[in-house]
Write a structure and sequence with these properties.
Shape: globular
Number of helices: 20
Strand content: 5-15%
Strand order of the largest sheet: 3-2-1-5-4
Structural class: alpha/beta
Helix content: 40-55%
Order of helices and strands: HHEHEHHEEHEHHEHHHHEHEHHHEHHHH
Radius of gyration: 30 Å
Number of strands: 9
Low-confidence stretches: 1-17, 45-79, 497-503
Amino acid sequence: MEVRSEGFQVMYDKLHAPVIQRSRFRFWFIRVCSSIVLWTCLVQLVTVSELWNSNFFTGLTSHIYHTTQRPIQDDVKLTESPHIILPARNYTSNGFLRVSCNGGLNQMRAAICDMVTVARLLNLTLVVPELDKKSFWADHSGFEEIFDVKHFIDSLQDEVRIVKRVPKKFSRKGGYSTMAMPPVSWSNEKYYLEQILPLFAKHKVVHFNKTDARLANNGLPIDMQKLRCRVNYQALKFTPQIEKLGQKLIQMLHERGPFVALHLRYEMDMLAFSGCTRGCTNEEAEDLKRMRYAFPSWREKEIVSEERRSQGLCPLTPEETALVLQALGFDRETQIYIAAGEIYGGERRLAQLRAAFPNIVRKEALLAVDELQQFQNHSSQMAALDFMVSVASDTFIPTYDGNMAKLVEGHRRYSGFKKSILLDRKKLVQLIDMHQNRTLPWNEFADAVRQAHEKRMGQPSYRRVIADKPKEEDYFYANPHECLCEETKCDDFLGPHNSLQVK
């Protein structure tokens, strides 16, 4: 019986093997087809969501990312970009605008905001800006190594079309010639509409080879001013790598308590450029002079340091800064983050400041070597970290009113008028000299310093206008008051008696 049963089973298996194989084939065929259908549906869903300008997927991933990040301060959220990507603006482009930004990170940042606004005004297609690689800092970082390119393009697509490069058909081989030129500084919309726009009819591609301060501070339509702010505070977002490390720095500092971001602009390039040598040795002063002569673009060569200092045109020295901070009421326990590059003279020049405020920190001391390694030798990327920390600090104090100081000041105004102490250097050096000459006792010195800065804390105010002297006006990016209140309510918000406007 067992033999016959086994034989029967073998015969049964032979007869039904094709059926079993067909069943298995049918099972796998259905499974593969189902997978294809599912993937096809997913692709269609993504396509439809893009057509609807839905931000579902990016919003989901963004939500996952942000839930893992500890919010540093509520007011920092004011500067975050909107999550919804608006529909692309449909317009006929008049040509391609190429721009080469000159200067350091913050000078280039302001220029990018201006150039987006010019492109919008003239209905141009903007090519992703080229960054300066030949300045003193010699940073070879491209736009995409500092800023999030995709975010920049997507977040502005409802205003201006931005491309990564000029199409090949508009090259010289295609019969087109690019016109290179620097636009006139501090120009208004009339200049761009009447003198620049006609150039695109002939060349199709125009290259602005200098972009610093090429758009007026004042006298522009409100929508142009607001677009400048939108680019600055929403579209120009640093790369994820910079953002992540910057947020880590900010969190580490906040965990240690409140902190002051001190933009101590006592660096070799600034001293050489300004000709300020107070406290330097004779050898250091000669080195600074040689550097000044080595850069043809630095037009002033023979500079009298003490005269420049008395005019308030020198950055405060570390020693002067220590006295001013003490006079303003900061105690020894104050945590001070130095937002700057290498201090000229090194620890020798920092000795008095460190003695007065031993709780001085820098990013190089807070972060591990391998964390900063990818940013080393890239001054603009290092400056981006300092920029983030300065914007998020409890108090910001610049010792010189350069581009970073001005843009951080404006960013902090936009973030809810966070405290920024804007030092009156001309007044301060007079007071410091009197105190050091023993003609002004400490109590009187401290009172005078505090009184001089009661209205220099970054409070709401109108931007100063000086007809025919745009360089002497308040800089737009330091005080973009049009972006800080509703146009019809600015007087109530800024206060009619708080206006610095010169008619």
